Amino acid sequence: MKFSVGIAVAIAVLFGLLGSVFIVREGQTAMVLNLGRVVRTDLEPGLHFKWPLVETAPIFDRRLQVLEAEPERYLTSERKDVSVDFFAVGRIDDARAFYRATGGDESVAVARLAPIIKDSLRNEINARTLQQVVSGDRSAIVNQQLVAINRGAATMGVSIIDLRIKRIELPTDSQVIQDVYRRMRAQRQQVASRLRAEGAEQAQTVRSQADREQAVIIAEAEGDAQRLRGEGDATATRIYAQAANKDPGFYAFQRSLEAYRKSFADGQGVIVMDRDDPFLQYLKTDR
């Protein structure tokens, strides 16, 4: 009987020892609650003791944690709708404040931090244009709001180390996409119009150059033709003169025949002149 009682006492003592010892690992912190009241907090890594049954020791992870959130829609300064997907990197700085604010539940902390971060981003994005938000320096958007975010996070014993914007999109049901497409089409049309204008200008330049070259070629050809005609007329005149000098009578006769042919070419010509006119000398007959 005494042996059984001894075993029971030993077992009770063992469970008491096991219930009074707890280990805080590296990267963790802990606090001790005595019947729900905080008596010790921010315990360092190592072996710690507490009163069994009346004290509890919740343990928290002090390493950096990634806090995910659902994408949020914001309006830019131009009243353009954008969807921003972000995440925050934070850690627990004050275990007492964290426990009091969230009861030690990390999901509660995330749910309470998300609106703080979203409101801070909203203030920053509302003050910027769509182009500044999409193509600007995203770190500038974040850094200006970290101080305000940490003021709200400090009430929960949490500090936000970094805030990153993963993706900025235009919602598919937003009018912004249609505006962007219209702007892109307008820009493409401007480029096409500019290219067409440049092409027309180059074509006009080529045509003008061709017309100038054509005019020069025609002028040079006309000059050559005039020169050749002049040389030909001069040669013909010289030949006619040489022929006339060899036989003036025959030359006069031939010229008169040509004059008769031209004068009576249509067969209805009428010439009124004196009968002794020299022009008629070859039309007379000797009797």
Structural class: alpha+beta
Strand content: 15-25%
Number of helices: 7
CATH topology of the domain at 65-173: Tetrahydropterin Synthase, Chain A
Averaged pLDDT: 78
Model description:
The protein is of the alpha+beta class and 287 residues long. Among the domains are: 52 residues, no CATH class; 109 residues, 2-Layer Sandwich (Tetrahydropterin Synthase, Chain A), CATH 3.30.479; 25 residues, no CATH class. The chain is built from seven helices and ten strands. Strands 2, 3, 5 and 6 form a four-stranded antiparallel sheet that branches. Strand 2 and strand 3 form a beta hairpin. Helix 3 packs across helix 5 and helix 6 crosses helix 7. It is rod-shaped, with a radius of gyration of 56 Å. The mean pLDDT is 78.
Break the fold down into its secondary structure elements and pairings.
Elements: H1 2-20, E1 21-24, E2 28-34, E3 37-43, E4 46-49, E5 55-56, E6 59-61, E7 65-68, E8 72-75, E9 81-92, H2 95-102, H3 106-126, H4 130-135, H5 138-153, E10 158-169, H6 175-246, H7 248-263
Antiparallel strand pairs: 1-4, 2-3, 2-5, 2-6, 7-9, 8-9, 9-10
